[in-house]
Write a structure and sequence with these properties.
The protein is elongated, with a radius of gyration of 26 Å. The longest helix is centred in the middle third of the chain and has 31 residues, at about 75-105. It has helices at about 5-10, 15-20, 40-55, 60-70, 75-105, 115-125, 130-145, 150-165, 165-175, 185-195, 200-205, 215-220, 225-245. It is mainly alpha-helical.
């Protein structure tokens, strides 16, 4: 292959290829008798790897370090890794298109854009004017966008809980604690009832290490006033114990 051919194959410009040669990131290939560079499949694989690493945000110096660590690997291994990465990208694109399709079919909401699974969960929940319930919706929308291990399986497991008739009353009791002190006697019993309301099916799909008052959990806790924060903190701690117990770990 000539430089224009390898550039077109990988999806970069000839100028980029020359720049990678200039900085020593992409070794110069052998030249034909006429002076033209003659690129091989291995050159194309290396160039594709450089493109992929830069696209995910690595600097060229960081790319150089990664490539140095991979030196000496078999071509079939590198090709397999690239194929797996392409499959991942195809899956992500398919999932994004599914979200877009759902958005095009349904009218926009204040919560959106949401994944189809979360949209179905929120649609199944009874209408309520509870501020605590509204906050829960906001947190789920944030989790849906930011990731954190949430997915269709978790939302499906939450559906029976969202539809349970007693949940509205629990939200109302949480609303009543909006201006309460952190030592309010209503905190402990409400936290216990909230924990008891979560079915085992939900625990089975909670990602490892969750729920936790760190990361996303910390952001969630900071969104509540003191008494409500204490309720949610206790719920998170108790659910973490239940999760570890269901997975055979010591508490």
């Amino acid at each position: 292959m000539r430089i224009g051919e390898i550039a077109a194959l990988v999806g970069v410009t000839s100028r980029a290829v020359r720049h990678y040669h200039h900085i020593g990131l992409l070794p110069e290939p052998a030249r034909r008798a006429n002076g033209y560079r003659a690129y091989t499949v291995r050159d194309a694989v290396l160039l594709a790897r450089i493109r992929r690493l830069t696209e995910i945000g690595l600097s060229l110096d960081e790319v150089r370090d990664v490539l140095a660590d991979d030196a000496g690997r078999e071509l079939v291994e590198v090709l397999g890794e690239l194929d797996a990465d392409l499959a991942r990208q195809e899956r992500e694109i398919r999932e994004r298109r599914e979200v877009l399709a759902a958005l095009l079919e349904a009218p926009p909401t204040s919560d959106g854009p949401l994944s189809p699974a979360l949209a179905a969960l929120l649609e199944s929940a009874p209408a309520t004017g509870s501020p605590a319930a509204a906050k829960d919706r906001e947190h789920l929308a944030l989790l849906d966008t930011a990731g954190g291990g949430a997915g269709a399986e978790l939302y499906a497991a939450l559906r029976p809980l969202a539809e349970a008739p007693g949940v509205a009353a629990l939200y109302e009791r949480l609303d009543e604690l909006a201006g309460a002190a952190v030592d309010d006697p209503r905190i402990a019993p409400l936290a216990a009832e909230l924990v008891a309301a979560v079915p085992d099916e939900v625990l089975a799909v909670i990602p490892d290490g969750e729920p936790s008052p760190k990361g996303f959990g910390r952001v969630l806790l900071e969104d509540y006033p003191p008494a409500q924060r204490e309720v949610v903190r206790r719920v998170m701690e108790a659910l973490a114990v239940r999760v570890r117990a269901t997975r055979g770990r010591s508490v």
